[in-house]
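call fold(seq) -> tokens
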Amino acid sequence: MKLQPDRIDTLSVTGYGPGWIGISGEKVMRSVVITSHGEQMNWDCNRFSELTPAHFARLADLSVELVIFGSGAQLRFVQPAWVSPLMQRGIGMETMDTFAACRTFNILAGEGRKVAAALVIEA
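ret:
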């Protein structure tokens, strides 16, 4: 049996710690949205409490089947009405803490899924 190392041919989270994540080797210290088809966008919020419905409406414009929402250092849920634009377009959303969202994004992107990670990075 021939074994091959895992390799992701798109953006991936290469590390993380309090107040930062690594995206394909670049240290990012702000909230960000990344997609499995290579997009990386600033997500204008510095903490969970700054999120608004507009943040999630913007995610509905991505060409993905699933959004993984990283809510920061702890698991927190947004108001259900805020994810309505995603649901209207048939896009699922899973909520987890940001570090778990990073790991889940890498797995799904590595499988070739159309996925985005919306990650709250709190300073």
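The first helix runs from residue 53 to 59.
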